[in-house]
């Protein structure tokens, strides 16, 4: 497999297309590959050696089990563990090298600092590669590599550990190396980033989200490398790369804070399991371990286990219950959190009535207890009682010169608890609505069971009354689809996770018509956060984004200049014809060798109905609330479940006026359209949605 570099040209190298006019790069790649082959061989030998050592130690222990004394046995067991760890490390190196060999680097920058006259060449890849003490490839996350994303030719600089380094970038090249073969080299005299980005974006979708290290844009790089902000909030239009950026930021932080931060200190709160599966490959592709994945449901389930039960969230599009909707709306604003805060502040006055406490010779007055109660105002109510009971005992102890028997801590605590007028969180939560004068806004569907919109308010009160278990292990929390969570959910999350956060989403892609909160409210909750807005969309063609921008009336949305077919709005005589036309599109897709096609319906029920029909003739997958995997091919799903996903081609059936008419429906249609990367078709029977009628040029019989 070794290819010796041939001086003077690339023709003699078999795995390089002869059209690449960069003989120096062809030669360089051959040299790197040769060194990598040696490194892979060494790593392989290492793994084998460690393997042998492990087997020999195990055999020795088995053969002499009866004869070895316990101390020696223990030493051998320790040795085995150590060999095992070294082996895992060696395998890790070997695996990384093998991956890197496929595509060792994607960029080169030539830079000389203002202090030096010598220009240094730096090749940038997915991981660093050092051979014989020579750093041959830089990790894309290394400080020097940041210049590739941030600067064009000319003055440039980067933040090194010892301070800022300034200098000049004299060359920028970009490469595509696939299966160890150089596919192209682009010199920066042409607009390097755009050209390569265009090539990357015009490809068909992969089954899973992929890394974007070769084409990270400047404004994205700024977010990824921000290691200072405690909280970053990213508001970005559909397809602006928010999820990609969040994952690359994690990879960056894991590199930057190696030893202090590891993948098991990072959690992503994702909207559903399909989305989790869709993004699962990005970090391993970047050489990092997968991070923990959670949902708001899991969090509530863990915190409320054994305390109270709760119902799952109802689908707002399938639930016609005005009173329920009113309850959801009321609990969805920042105002609601403020009301809870006010109630919590008044709790001591409302629920605690101190009285004198006497035990034998000793006593403390009601006033003394009341004062202690206020002094501990930063603690949950129950915790305050514990602290006061300790204070009472200390107080008694210090006056106990005669050595009288003192009460037990438990007994004191019991007496203090009796001074509480309300004894548990559920009673307290009910009382909150009484205090508001709005008791009708709390409905328990069953005994000891909460509706979903009450789960986080309940937890918030639980925090104030009993305390919540803070997750101290987590050092970074990523919250995706931020617009779908209410301020009270954030208020609870802030109690549970006091760590650094990356919060991302798009308030233009809200899927719950009963959620009234806004980006401004989220900002109020995170007043010290760094807010970044991303308005350029990378996912879809210029034609699709221009169409979606007008349908969704998203003024800020900026398309990438990558052209494709104009989206089509097809009129059908009746539902039967609409179905036939959809089937026609599926046949075309199957013949075209396309990779992924999504049929996106307004509701989960409508998606299920379409699936039941199409599964009779096609190999289709249904992405429902219960699904756990995302796969290529034809998928049928709802707008809600399609969020965060993307398909080469998207079909949106049933875009009648009756289906898409409200302001909220406009948002749904926008989400559906922006899932398409290359091709978009909408169909309707009867009267088309008025969001489409201004697009006459897109209409087709
Ligand atoms: N700099 C980039 N280089 C290459 N591809 C990119 C870049 N930025 C984004 N993309 C691609 O654009 C698509 C959208 O990215 P991503 O899903 O992260 O966006 P998003 O803002 O989370 O989208 P949405 O909110 O619509 O779900 C993905 O295919 C991603 O790979």
TrEMBL record:
Name of this chain's protein: DNA helicase-2 / ATP-dependent DNA helicase PcrA
**What are the residue boundaries of the UvrD-like helicase ATP-binding domain, all occurrences included?**
215-541
Taxonomic source organism: Anaerotignum propionicum DSM 1682
Write out the GO biological process terms: recombinational repair
Q: Report the superkingdom from the record.
A: Bacteria
Name any one GO molecular function: ATP binding
Q: What is its EC number?
A: 3.6.4.12
Signal peptide range equals none
Task: State the top-level EC class.
Answer: hydrolase
PANTHER family, per database record: DNA HELICASE IV, UVRD / RECB / PCRA DNA HELICASE FAMILY MEMBER
| PROSITE patterns attached to this UniProt entry | UVRD_HELICASE_ATP_BIND
For this protein, the record's Pfam families field holds:
UvrD_C_2
Task: Show the GO cellular component annotation of the record.
Answer: cytosol
Q: Which gene encodes it?
A: helD
Alphabetized InterPro entries for the sequence: DNA_helicase_UvrD/REP (IPR000212), P-loop_NTPase (IPR027417), UvrD-like_ATP-bd (IPR014016), UvrD-like_helicase_C (IPR027785)
Keywords, A to Z, come to: ATP-binding, Helicase, Hydrolase, Nucleotide-binding
Q: Where does ATP bind?
A: 236-243
């Amino acid at each position: 497999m070794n290819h010796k570099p041939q001086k003077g040209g690339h023709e003699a190298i078999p795995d390089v297309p002869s059209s690449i006019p960069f003989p120096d790069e062809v030669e360089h790649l051959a040299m790197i590959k040769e060194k990598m082959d040696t490194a892979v061989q060494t790593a392989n030998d290492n793994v084998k050696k460690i393997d042998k050592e492990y087997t020999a130690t195990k055999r020795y222990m088995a053969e002499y089990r009866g004869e070895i004394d316990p101390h020696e046995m223990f030493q051998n067991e320790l040795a085995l563990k150590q060999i095992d760890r070294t082996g895992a490390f060696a395998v890790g190196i070997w695996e990384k090298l093998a991956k890197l060999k496929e595509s060792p680097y994607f960029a080169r920058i030539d830079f000389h600092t203002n202090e030096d006259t010598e220009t240094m060449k730096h090749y940038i890849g997915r991981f660093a590669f050092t051979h014989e003490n020579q750093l041959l490839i830089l990790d894309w996350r290394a400080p020097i590599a940041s210049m590739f994303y941030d600067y064009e030719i000319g003055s440039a600089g980067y933040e090194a550990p010892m301070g800022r380094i300034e200098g000049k970038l004299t060359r920028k090249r970009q490469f595509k190396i696939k299966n160890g073969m150089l596919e192209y080299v682009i010199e920066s005299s042409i607009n390097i980033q755009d050209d390569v980005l265009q090539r990357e974006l015009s490809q068909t979708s992969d089954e899973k989200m992929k890394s974007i290290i070769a084409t990270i844009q400047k404004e994205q790089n700024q977010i990824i490398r921000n290691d200072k902000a405690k909280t970053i909030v990213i508001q970005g239009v559909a397809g602006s790369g928010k999820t990609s950026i969040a994952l690359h930021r994690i990879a960056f932080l894991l590199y930057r804070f190696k030893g202090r931060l590891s993948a098991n200190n990072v959690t992503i709160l994702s909207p559903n399991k399909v989305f989790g599966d869709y993004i699962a490959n990005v970090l391993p592709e970047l050489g990092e371990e997968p991070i923990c994945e959670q949902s708001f449901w899991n969090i509530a389930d863990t915190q409320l286990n054994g305390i109270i039960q709760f119902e799952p969230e109802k689908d707002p599009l399938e639930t016609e219950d005005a009173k329920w909707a009113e309850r959801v709306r009321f609990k969805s604003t920042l105002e609601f959190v403020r009301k809870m805060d006010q109630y919590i502040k008044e709790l001591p006055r409302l629920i605690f009535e101190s009285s004198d406490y006497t035990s034998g010779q000793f006593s403390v007055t009601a006033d003394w207890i009341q004062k202690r109660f206020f002094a501990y105002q930063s603690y949950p109510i129950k915790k305050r009682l514990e602290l006061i009971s300790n204070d009472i005992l200390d107080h008694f102890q210090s006056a106990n010169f005669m050595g009288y028997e003192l009460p037990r801590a438990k007994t004191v605590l019991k007496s203090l608890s009796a001074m509480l007028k309300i004894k548990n969180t559920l009673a307290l939560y009910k009382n909150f609505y009484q205090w508001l004068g709005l008791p009708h806004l709390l409905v328990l569907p069953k005994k000891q069971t909460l509706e979903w919109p009450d789960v986080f308010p309940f937890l918030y009160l639980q925090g104030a009354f009993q305390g919540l278990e803070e997750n101290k292990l987590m050092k970074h929390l990523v919250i995706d689809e931020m617009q779908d969570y209410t301020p009270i959910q954030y208020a609870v999350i802030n109690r549970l996770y006091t760590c650094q956060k990356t919060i991302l989403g798009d308030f233009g892609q809200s899927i719950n018509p009963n959620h009234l909160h806004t980006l401004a409210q989220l900002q109020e909750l995170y007043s010290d956060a760094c807010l970044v807005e991303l308005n350029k969309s990378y996912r879809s063609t210029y034609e699709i984004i221009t169409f979606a921008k007008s349908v969704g009336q998203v003024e800020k949305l900026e398309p990438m200049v990558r052209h494709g077919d104009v989206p089509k709005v097809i009129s059908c005589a009746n539902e039967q014809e609409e179905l036939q036309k959809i089937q026609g599109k599926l046949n075309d897709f199957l013949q075209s060798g396309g990779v992924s096609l999504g049929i996106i319906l307004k509701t989960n029920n409508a998606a299920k109905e379409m699936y039941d029909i199409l599964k009779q003739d096609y190999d289709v997958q249904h992405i429902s609330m219960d699904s756990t995997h995302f796969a290529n091919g034809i998928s049928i799903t709802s707008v809600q479940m399609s969020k965060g996903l993307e398909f080469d081609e998207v079909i949106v059936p049933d875009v009648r006026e009756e289906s898409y008419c409200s302001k909220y429906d406009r948002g749904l249609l926008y989400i559906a359209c922006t899932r398409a990367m290359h091709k978009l078709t909408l169909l309707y029977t009867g009267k088309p949605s008025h969001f489409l009628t201004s697009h006459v040029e897109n209409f087709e019989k």
